[in-house]
Amino acid sequence: MLLWLGEYLTQYFSAFNVFSYLTFRAIVSTLTALVVSLYFGPKLIRYLQDMQIGQTVRDDGPQSHLSKSGTPTMGGILILASIVFSVLLWADLSNTYVQVVLFVVISFGLIGFVDDYRKVIRKDSNGLIARWKYFWQTAAGLSTAIFLYWFAQTPEETSLVIPFIKDVLPQLGIFYIVMTYFVIVGTSNAVNLTDGLDGLAIVPTVMVAGALGLFAYVTGNANFSEYLNISHIPLTSELVVVCTAVVGAGLGFLWFNTYPAQVFMGDVGSLALGATLGVIAVLVRQELVLFIMGGVFVVETVSVILQVGSYKLRGQRIFRMAPIHHHYELKGWPEPRVIVRFWIISVVLVLIGLATLKLR
Fold first, then answer.
1. Residue 4 domain-assigned?
2. Closest among 2, 11, 191 to 89, alpha carbons compared
3. Number of domains the chain contains
């Protein structure tokens, strides 16, 4: 929005040309989302408290969690509002990729909102029935995948980039739709499963979003993409503004979500943030790198799959409780120790993911 305004005002005052610089807009996008989160955070928390929209804690989990019962939830509304506001303000809204990401943020946010609404307001412990939840996730994810496949203009947009290998770029063809669907929906649910401790999900999300912003910048820049020998997709450069908005909104939310949390993001935040990371990774052609950088999300998801599979097949559990962060809590690790160690692992994995830019 302000990009268009800046372009118009530049003819009268050249200083407004600064709005055309991607790096400037990326920085102010971060700050805008951060300020919005910090300003409206306390107001939202008070509102949620007044409306008694609090978290219900299972009594079969770590006993230390029982004190969290009643903590305001659905704080993801703050994250999504900050992201959308910042993107609308600073991004080029004519960019198709930006439009796609906004669609994913809003659609998966609505799915999470309905789930949270049923759980914490209507007091339905099941929330949105699982089959309907996955139906709407499938509808949003599949429609996004089909659109991107149909919209693709160059072979680079539908090729598979394999980390650390520069000369092999297999064309996915129709399988692009399948992969895109699973990346978006899978990452959405993976972040949702990880969101079980104070700040555990939001920090890896911020780090991965920041790394994807760097991938978006070099992929969209002809000089950098040629130097690094990666696919050049011009439209991805504008996704930097989206990624930095996620970083700013995430850091603002962390201010209130850090241990001990004043608010939880709920499904409205985790489902949307995961889907957002997934679709951005698809757009910058780094699905496999997302698998590396989001390793914490992957391990959390695999732990649930293994736990459920083992119990159904053998009648025995592998972990004391799944997702795996609860397993370590039940082993006696204090919650802050689990959180910070998972953060450290995320830092290492993100650095490995970034290394794929050069080690090819």
1. no
2. 2
3. 1
